[in-house]
Please model this.
Amino acid sequence: MKKLLNACALVLCAGSLSAADVPAGLIRIGTDKTDLILRVGDDSRVRQAYLGPKLVNAADLEHFSKSSGGTEAYVTHGMEDYFEPAIRVLHADGNPSLLLTYKDFTQEENDSVQTTGIVLQDEKYPFEVRLFYKAYKRENVIKMWTEIEHGEKKPVTLYNYASSMLHFGRDSYWMTEFSGDWAHEVNMEEQKLTFGKKVVDTKLGSRANLHVSPFFLLGLDAPVAENTGNAVIGTLGWTGNFRFTFEVDNANNLRLISGINPSGSEYLLPKGEVFRTPEFIFTYSTEGTGPASRDFHDWARKYQIKDGMGDRMTLLNNWEATYFDFDQAKLEKIIADAADLGVDMFLLDDGWFGNKYPRSSDHAGLGDWEETKAKLPGGIGALTAAAKKEGVKFGLWIEPEMVNPKSELYEKHKDWVIHLPNREEYHYRNQMVLDLSNPAVQDYVFGVVDKLLTAYPEIAYFKWDCNSPITNIYSPYLGADKQSNLYVEHVRGLYKVLDRIAAKYPTLPMMLCSGGGGRTDYEGLKYFTEFWASDNTDPVERIFIQWGYSYLFPAKATAAHVTSWGKQSLKFRTDVAMMGKLGFDIRVDELSPAEKQFARQAVANYNRLKPVILDGELYRLVSPYSGEHSSVMFTDRAKANAVVFAFNRNPRFSEQLRNVRLQGLDPQKMYTVAEINLMPGAKSGLAANGRSYSGDYLMKVGLPLFSGAHLTSTVVELSAR
Ligand code: DGJ
Model:
């Protein structure tokens, strides 16, 4: 067997791994900065030998092939391991065990992306597990997923079916979770992991990330820091129930298991069907979370997010400006306001559909995707025409996976609704979830988008909402024996719909929204150009929320709107929203002439700075979690242009203010400082305004950007001469 592995290595390990680099019995998965080394033992079991910074001397790999330690790469239940397994199954004969040994492996590299597949098999049952690893070498990101398949006569029940399992042997482990609630997303909480398990999971089904997002930070040997120390950032690409298990064992080793949350989701796998788990995506940094985030952003823009390298449209949304209370004339006025502000698009939100049950509140209409005639006599067509006349694009809100019991769809198709046949319905936000495991429902949901785009090809954007978790969990379609497959099949059904939309409308931008940030995963973002970070648009809260998301997502993917939720100055609100994908959701007619002029100028500034903010590199300079001030900056790739945002929330009287030391600049370059986003007529109070400094000075000494004034902000643009 060892021989076979070596032969595979010789044949397949082209690219940067020369055959000589990989001694017999080892599998080397790696990026330019990280190595994950697996060893096939004499007992044919596959163990993780190493995970950490890239080993620079190929000759050192030899040491791994000679040693014998390490924990199995994909631990099974029922054998000699007594901690959490990656996989637990029940064969039809009642046997609950698996013992997986090496069968085969392949490895190939294309354009700096290395893909590895390892086949494991059980010796007693025709049961195979295939481990996959995709290493994005330049971006230092590794994806892991698993395929499970068997040839047993009767279905096998999968109780645990992890996407990934990784092992760490360190002195201490520090895990940061991103938890919260509606309008209170991604609160960062770090804790030391001690013996036993810490589980981060969700069981909400559809609005899955309402209480916790599918990502974490992990500090090895010390709490994470921005520019120092070993840190892992990890996430699961699954728009449904997920689970991360962090288990510290008796020897202070940590195993990290990710995957679909198996709770309520035992999966009945028939012979020959391939169960493919979602992807776990991680990066390992030896220089803290700053470089880790920048690697994640680069990877996401290049490989994962829909149109990740493309432009983004600024917009004016009407949700907070009108809620459900609008008509055609009001919307036409807002469309004109959008043009006046200089944004690219008007986005019509909830409340435009339903006739028998008009959508005049969240109690009715979901499912009936026809314009409410009484409200919009000219239909969407009149609105797209108005937008065209004003020179702005038109975007539309939909929530096609849901239904209000007060709707024609529910009356006609109760069989399409997830509900328990013999119990009273429980409604979340007065609505229910359609059964996407059912192909007829998939057709219907695809049809919502397809019909709208066929009737109104001018629709340039969708905001796709999802306000309810799965309630009353029972699929009328799946039948009594397959109910526990529903959570999985539902998400797969959603992807089938989204695949069809992507195939037919490949360039259509869409926002992933779920009652705020209820859906924030990277598989979802394959189909969406951005996500709605939170319904909470109070900029003080948004400073924290956007800071949290920035660990995983580039600004380009994080929609941020200027609204009236907070009562701060328009400048403060705008400065915060400019750190993301900028939009407005305000009553433009209530702005003073000076505010309007400010907003227009801010949009123009944003358009100029898009290459820096949306496609550049993010540096988190001062954390809002550390006090009443915070700051982030973005630089472009050439380090020629940068923009720095600095915020003062509620500083104490007579507080000692420190300079903000910048990062990511070229020490040799000279940068001119210009304060931007000033109210018309206001003069910059910054002594540095208009002066030039070297990158070296700006990074070592910094600029006095903070002040003691409450709820104030400063934005400076740096341009290299
Ligand atoms: C929840 C979203 O997060 C909001 O932005 C808005 O679109 C409402 N739904 C509409 O019902």
